[in-house]
């Protein structure tokens, strides 16, 4: 049972007074009294004080039309010139107080005070947007999602800290249970987002959902189909950022909600058996990896590691489509890391996640997540280590955190063996890094110097020279220094120029459908062994076009 304080008015006041924002609460109560507005602190503030959890978002309910905005403006003035940001369409107002003005160095988060007048709500079956009317405090508490979020405390000076708990949220806090004030089916029918929020609060607080809530989640799972993707993703992000994110995903899966909001993850669930051989359940493996990442990065804020956690969620996402049974080797998932990486952009777009460098980070680590395993062998070459360091760049430490998290064997001896092997891989990386300085590698001869030296403009020849210099360094043919790289440029420049001219000649020859083979021709010009005779090289490149176009048919 949780150590919820005894809940007399005095004890709640004492618990509130231990918070850094307590003076602000006291002032809000005095201001409300001075302007004759009935005001209460509600929701997460009350819940988190009782659980002794930190919070920086404080919600206040007032009674009477437009009194929320009125009180916010009065409080902003009383606090010394802060701005009350008014949102008239929602009837709310907010004040942001910088951390240095209230937090005593305990956090760098601003304190957000949000004010709204009490209201009652009714819903249509085809929308989660309520019809809103002015209401009493009791009406406002009735519309709340969960009992633990439906408590309020008086702010008036002579009643400060007195709790109003019509649905016995205190008992649910002590029972560590998520329950609804009203019938859960009605609650979720009105606003289906509350179903995902139930999983989110259960995850953040490490609570269970009540039996009746669990049944209602199953019954009303289909209602999430009317939700906007942005609202769904906001809740998913909060689940993922929690200490044990698997809690929420297990609830969503067990209640049938996950298949509606994240079918790609749902599709990982299940185990096939052939000739007595079974593969592991990749859904539960994925959740274990996700929890492992959360545990291994516990010294960092969950939001700071959210994209590494997405790597955990998506690293095996293509396993269902790469699954094969080999009578000799059992179940295989060859190439799943590359296929999984290629699925990342579409999943990010579908979930309305950012498609910038954060997506590219996830895509890269998903693609690379098996590479460190290949470095475990004693006879691994420095070249293989260099290439991984080059491709991972500054994210190599996160990659190694992930691959350790991906070790989920139930055999302790096997787990130790893998983790020890990764320690040895990191030692190899450190040795090569110290010798070759490959993290954030940039070729010591850049494109501008190549153009100036060869007297050419930007084009394929420059790209060939840059890539060949890079490959020579990664293969250990030349050191990662300017003079050897420049000499190597002198050695390859004639062939780079010739290949650039061959590519330009091919572009002039290609027309219509042949243009679709441009990428294949460019790849051949960069990487293939071309005949030394130009006519023979052109003939070779013509066959590349034929093969490429033939493959489309």
Please tell me about this protein's structure:
Its cofactor is Mg(2+). One of its GO terms (biological process) is RNA repair. Belongs to the tRNA nucleotidyltransferase/poly(A) polymerase family. GO terms for molecular function: ATP binding; metal ion binding; nucleotidyltransferase activity; RNA binding. The protein is an alpha+beta fold and 553 residues long. The strands form five sheets. Strands 3-4-5-2-1-8-9 form a seven-stranded mixed β-sheet. Strands 6-7 form a two-stranded antiparallel sheet. The protein is elongated. The chain is built from 27 helices and 15 strands. The model has no long low-confidence stretch (mean pLDDT 89). Helix 2 packs across helix 4 (67-78) and helix 25 runs antiparallel to helix 26 (518-527). The chain folds into three domains: 1-175, Beta Polymerase, domain 2 (2-Layer Sandwich); 262-436, Hypothetical protein af1432, CATH 1.10.3210; 447-551, no CATH class.
**Name of the CATH first level of the largest domain:** Alpha Beta
Poorly predicted tracts of residues: none
Number of domains: 3
Largest sheet: 7 strands, mixed
* Distinct helical segment count: 27
Question: Any idea what the shape is?
Answer: elongated
What is the assigned CATH homologous superfamily of the largest domain?
A: Beta Polymerase, domain 2
Mean of the pLDDT scores? 89
Cofactor: Mg(2+)
Family: Belongs to the tRNA nucleotidyltransferase/poly(A) polymerase family.
GO molecular function: ATP binding; metal ion binding; nucleotidyltransferase activity; RNA binding
Keywords: ATP-binding, Magnesium, Metal-binding, Nucleotide-binding, Nucleotidyltransferase, RNA repair, RNA-binding, Transferase, tRNA processing
